[in-house]
Design goal:
Layout: H1 5-28, E1 46-47, E2 50-51, H2 55-66, H3 70-85, E3 93-95, E4 101-103, H4 107-111, H5 118-137, E5 141-147, H6 150-153, H7 170-181, E6 185-186, H8 188-193, H9 209-223, E7 236-242, H10 245-250, E8 258-263, E9 270-271, E10 282-286, E11 291-297, H11 302-311, E12 313-319, H12 328-331, E13 336-342, E14 375-381, E15 387-393, E16 403-407, E17 410-414, E18 423-428, E19 434-441, E20 444-447, E21 451-452
Parallel strand pairs: 5-6, 5-13, 11-12, 11-13
Antiparallel strand pairs: 1-2, 3-4, 7-8, 9-10, 10-12, 14-15, 15-18, 16-17, 16-19, 19-20, 19-21
């Protein structure tokens, strides 16, 4: 029988092409993620003490995310789609005009869609009010701020198909709620809109160093601190050396750098312990002859902001941990507390209750219980001297109603935050024998029956 060598050659080439990513992966190792990309974890044969029934699917996901040459192929495809159709090949990135890139998760804010409910906004504001109350009891100054979404400041580069709303967004609504709660805040969006200079990166979701300098000055003004102001545009030098997160997500093998602006000065602060990068969970700094001690809860916008803040305080602790642990006020002897969160993540304030002792309240407890009020709850031990009680109401309280827990005759106010529809979280001194909940419904104070906690 005559052999079809052409067919065999074709088959061999096809098999080599199929195996080449796997061979390359074995030789050079798996591809790594870039930017904000989250890759599938390594597959495991076991799960929850038994055989992992999803092992083959997990293996497929792992290989699809990490095969050799993946970044180059993804980049080539993304550049082709951008050139031919003006579209982003990465679902998390919006391709704007003149090469500007935006984070897709900011689109709801931009278009006024899927905004937080009034209850969620009030809960976020009230949690901040509880943090402010606790800080004031420790004689600590308190300030909250929101890092604006990039498209809230530079909408002119957004695609025309993305229609912008004129209605108040989450940050404006939160600020209204904070005014009602009496919580001090610094409006960075207003400060940035008042400036003509571009204060965010073109290819990144964050502000540049000049924007961080303006944020620092705005925060220090709001705190009434006597410190050097850094927003001096003529004293910054532009260098095209910034690895931009959105660009790396869209073009993982791309080589283009974004412009960063560097202050023409040397820093005098020092790190109390070596850091791996500005992404570290906790950063400690010292600076001679400056203001007191700062505790700052921050997110990735603090990567650049923390250097300016560190220069203005004698000691500073910058934490990326959430929920916010206010026991750090004691351990760091802080006299100033600043909380910064990006606009797109405001909802997390109603999801992660701050770690602080639940305050006691003097409230006249109704004698008559409402046996229709139901709630779920669970206790968990903490690392400190408290026990965490987290639960959910099965009925909706008034939009602006706190949630109180009656524990063995003592009334504590819970943070109206956590997981679920009507969550509450309280850090109590001990586990009570019985638990009741109180809240306002249609303006009337109602209380549940007592449920045993054993």
């Amino acid at each position: 029988m005559k052999k079809n060598y052409g067919y065999l050659i074709f088959l061999g080439v096809f098999l080599l092409m199929c195996l080449s990513p796997l061979v390359g992966m074995a030789i050079s190792g798996p591809s790594e993620g870039v930017g904000n990309e989250v890759l599938a974890p390594s597959p495991s044969l076991t799960k929850a003490g038994g055989f992992n029934l999803s092992f083959l699917n997990d293996t497929s996901d792992y290989f699809a995310d990490r095969f050799a040459g993946r970044q180059e192929l993804v980049t080539a495809d993304a550049k082709l789609e951008a050139a031919l159709f003006g579209e982003s090949a990465e679902e998390k990135v919006i391709l704007g005009k003149d090469g500007w890139l935006y984070y897709k998760s900011t689109l709801d804010d931009y278009q006024g869609q899927n905004l937080l409910s009034d209850r969620a906004l009030w809960s976020a504001a009230h949690c901040l009010a509880l943090m402010q109350e606790y800080a004031q009891e420790q004689d600590v100054s308190f300030l909250f701020t929101v890092a604006p979404n990039k498209n809230a400041l530079y909408p002119e580069y957004m695609p025309d198909r993305c229609l912008r709303t004129d209605a108040p967004g989450n940050s404006e609504r939160l600020y209204d709620a904070l005014r009602q709660e009496g919580v001090p805040f610094a409006d960075l969006k207003a400060a940035f809109l008042a400036e003509d200079r571009v204060l965010y990166h073109r290819l990144d979701s964050h502000w540049n160093n000049l924007g961080a300098a303006l944020a620092h000055d705005t925060l220090l003004d709001a705190l009434g601190k006597d410190a050097e102001r850094f927003y001096l545009p003529d004293r910054f030098t532009a260098v095209q050396d910034h690895d931009a997160d959105l660009y790396q997500m869209l073009y993982p093998a791309g080589t283009e750098k974004d412009v960063q602006l560097y202050p023409d000065r040397a820093w005098s602060f020092s790190y109390d312990r070596p850091i791996r990068s500005a992404e570290d969970q906790t950063i400690f700094t010292s600076c001679d002859g400056q203001n007191g001690a700062l505790l700052m809860f921050r997110d990735s916008f603090g990567n650049t902001l923390h250097t300016f803040m560190a220069e203005s305080f004698g000691a500073a602790c910058f934490s990326r941990a959430m929920p916010y642990d206010l026991s750090l006020l004691d351990s760091e002897s802080a006299d100033t507390l600043v909380i910064e969160i990006v606009e797109r993540n405001i909802g997390r304030l109603a999801q992660y209750a701050p770690i602080l002792p639940a305050p006691t309240r003097q409230i006249s407890v109704p004698q008559a219980c409402d046996d229709t009020v139901r709630f779920t709850f669970a206790f968990s031990q903490t690392n400190g001297n408290t026990i965490c009680c987290a639960g959910n109401l099965t009925c909706a309280p008034d939009t602006d109603s706190p949630i109180w827990l009656v524990c063995d005759g003592v009334v504590y106010e819970a943070s109206p935050a956590g997981s679920g529809e009507q969550p509450f979280t309280a850090y109590l001194p001990n586990q009570p024998a019985a638990l009741q909940v109180m809240f306002l419904q249609n303006g009337t104070l109602v209380i549940s029956q007592a449920f045993p906690c054993d």
